Structures are given as C-alpha cells and as structure tokens.
Amino acid sequence: MFKVLIVDDNDNNRLTLNLLLEEVEDIEIYEAEDGQIAVEMAVKEHFDLIFMDIMMPNMDGFEATRLIKQVQKNTMIIALSALDDDASKHKMLSLGAEDYLTKPIDSKLFEMRIRHYLNIITLRNKLPEEVTLVLNPFDTKIFSRSITFRVTKENDLAEFWDYWLMGEKNIIDLSDCVRLIYGFGLWLLKYHYSFNIIVEESRDKLYMMLVGTRPIKQSVIKNILLKHFTQAKYILSQDMLSFQLDIKIKALKEEMIISDEAKKILAKSHDNVLCASEYIETTAISFLPKIDGLELINDEIDKAILVFEDNPSKKATELICNNFQEYANILEELIDFAHLGFAIRTLINFLSSLSEEQFEETKVKKLSLMLLNLLHDLASWRDNVFISQVARDIHYLDASLLSSCIQIEAIFEEKSAEISGDDDLEFF
Fold first, then answer.
1. Cα 119 from Cα 335, distance rounded (Å)
2. Which of 174, 177, 258, 393 has a beta carbon 3.0–4.6 Å from 262's, enabling a disulfide?
C-alpha cells in the first residue's frame, strides 16, 4: 500500500487530485492544507509520494520540500504549481522534488505519470549497480570519467532515474531529459530491446546519450522531442540520441513574448514581506466593504465562464471581461495590489482580442477550466489575506496569477506535433 500525501491550500485542487487518484489501486491518500502541516506529518510517518503545491500562505512548497527531504530522503516529491516559470521549477528540483507539473493538470498525462511514479517507487529498493563506458558526439574536451547504464529490464531504467533525480544536481533541464529517455526506454523494453545510457561531462556541460534507438523511427523521436522537450539540444544519429545539458545555471530562452512589466512581476521576490494581519491593521476600514464585494464579482465571473463554455461567443467573453474589469478596478485602488490588477488587465486585453473563429471546442474547454482555476485562486487569496488573515506574505499570489494569465494566452498559440507511426510509444 502506497501512502500518498496531497499538499495544497486550495480545497478544489485537493479534490481534483483525489478524483484523479480514484482509479489508482493500493494507495492511501492523506491531505495537508499547507507546508507546515505537511512537514509535521512527514516527521511522524513515511510517505511514498507527495504532491506539493508551491504557492501557499503559511509555509510554501520550497521550504516544505527542503525540510521533508531532510527527514524522508526516499520520499518522491512531485511539485504542482500554476507558476510555470523556469526559476521555480529549478528551485523545486534542486531542493529534492523529482518532477514538476503545472496546473491545471491534464488527466491523461497525470494517469500515465502516476503509474510510472509508483512503479519507480516499487523498484527503488531492488536496484543493482552497473558499470561504466564512454561516448560523446558533441565535444572531445571532456573528463575521462563516464557512466553507463546497461538497460535490459525496468530495474535498470529505474536505477537511471534514481541516480539522476534523487538528490541535488545543478543541471539545467535534467528532469526533462531523464523523463524523455525513460519514456523511450520503456518502449524499447516493451519490445524486448536492450540498450545503453551513457553520460559524460565537461566543466560546464553534461552529455546524456541513449544508444540503441534504431527500433524507433527517427521522425517519431523528433516529433516527441518537439512536443515534450522543445528546448532540447540534441543530435540524432542512426542508432543514438544525444543530449547536451548545461551544468552552470543561466537564464533560459523564453518561449513566450512577455512584457517587461510582466517579467518584473514574475521575477519579483518581495523582499519586504508583509503578513496579512499586519497589512489589515494599516488598511482603511472604509475600504474593506469593497473587498467583501469581490465575492459577488467572483460569483458573477463564475457564471459568465459557464455560459461561455456552453455557448462560446464574443458576447460571452465581453461579459467575462466586464466582470474581471470590476475586480481589477477595486484592486487598483490599493497600491499594494497593483500587480494583481495588472495581471487581470493583461487577461482582459487578451480575452477581448479573441475572435469566434478561434473558439475550437477543445480550446474552449481548456480556457474555461483555466479561468475557473484562476478564479478559485483569487477567492483563496481574498480569504487568506482579508478574512482568515493567515497569509505570511500578501503578495504570494502575484507571480502565480500572472503566470496563469500567460499560460491562458498560450492555449491559442499551441503548436502541436502529430506522432505518425508507433502510436503505442508511451510517455509521461
């Protein structure tokens, strides 16, 4: 029986994960409303798998992950966040998380990944040691050492996963690369092909090579890389797929066009942290009724989103925008929440630019789901800051909300990569 802990301050998010885990056998689910509670629970008993939200009002996911890894080194922690930026991802992975999922969670992707997570956990204590070999198509100026994983069974593949993702390794995109090679490896093992994974290093690069790719069509490999690892630096030869990864931390190229103000907010660390209770003490009492009014606006936006999902049209989007504008107007009266107001204005401007020709069924459903999740985050923020006043930092939602708005825009800029042939090639 696997013990799984869901850590999230949002009731709806915890419910969503519970529903996604309903079909998984042999698991026992526990819940924690913030990072502090999760740490206290992890001290008392071992959890096999923890789904960890990042932005929480009491103790955030970064600190909780760091502390839990100190007492439960073998616990697999999967980061969950609407904040899809490289800095947060690298920080969580460096603190001990083994994967990073962005919300809203795709149910099919989650179903596939949870199966692999639990399988890796099962195999973790059965891993044999392997020998080393050498290879590298990128650069001859490398260290003499190398690591080779001779993979003939899933235990060998799980050892490869554990070696690279258990513990801190200062390597950019390591999780993405390991996950992709693991996926290709599963397909090869399924059809009884053995293969090698060989790793070499230079002072600032790591080269990871999957040797034995001939059974997989090159077009399939390229399409999967385009879909799941768009920033990959790779060389694909007749029988080998090689990746080049950066060891030194550096800024990654942004895939979406983000305004300077948006970048500033996403990078904002809020050095002058102000807790909710202190903030409320300095806020004019006359303004608080307007904050109470946000609950009614939330309800109106919720209704408008459901109307849009049932009958997508320009008129329906205008109704959503008008209600969001009321929300933004109230926030902009408070100087401290100008960033939240900016994020909502960014969303309004984008929704206003959509044409009815863009309202494809799948995109409408995804847009509606993301808008509802964003709305739930706003409701949770209002409660944590103004009602229960438990937020240790009143700005904890700023970057997450703007990131969510940017992700919503990306729905209508998606570039799909159709995989032709080998349809049973599994990935997570």
1. 50
2. 258
Question: Is the Cβ–Cβ distance between 15 and 373 less than 8 Å?
Answer: no
33, part of any domain? yes
Last residue of a domain, one of 218, 246, 274: 246
**pLDDT (tens digit, 9 = 90+) per residue, 219-253?**
888 888 877 887 788 888 889 999 989 886 433 33
- Residue 276 in any domain: the answer is yes
Interatomic CA distance for residues 114 and 391, integer angstroms: 31
> Cα–Cα distances in Å, from 121 out to 39, 50, 162, 164, 229?
20, 12, 9, 15, 24
User: Is 3 exposed, middle or buried, given 0-12, 13-18 or 19+ CB atoms closer than 10 A?
Assistant: middle
Both 187 and 280 in one domain: the answer is: no
Query: Do 376 and 264 belong together in one domain?
Result: yes
Strand order in the sheet with 240-246: 146-151, 195-201, 205-211, 240-246, 234-236
CA–CA gap between residue 50 and residue 97 (Å, rounded): 9
Residues 97 and 173 in one domain: no
- Rounded to the nearest 10 degrees, the angle between the axes of helix 86-94 and helix 174-190 is 70
Element (H or E) spanning 59, and its range?
A: none
Three-class secondary structure of residue 418 per DSSP:
coil
> Domains in the chain: how many in total?
3
Average pLDDT over residues 188-207: 91
Residues in the chain: 428
Of 92, 126, 160, which residue is a domain's last? Answer: 126
Which residues, including other chains, have CB under 8 Å from residue 4's CB and lie 6 or more apart? Answer: 21, 27, 28, 29, 30, 47, 48, 49, 50, 51
My answer on whether 163 and 305 are in the same domain is: no
For residue 157, being part of any structural domain is answered with yes
Q: Within a domain: residue 421?
A: no
Tell me, what's the pLDDT at 178?
A: 95
d(CA 326, CA 343): 14
Same domain, 189 and 160: yes
d(C-alpha 34, C-alpha 91), whole Å: 19
Q: pLDDT, tens digit, for every residue of 138-184?
A: 777 778 788 999 999 999 999 999 999 987 778 988 999 999 999 99
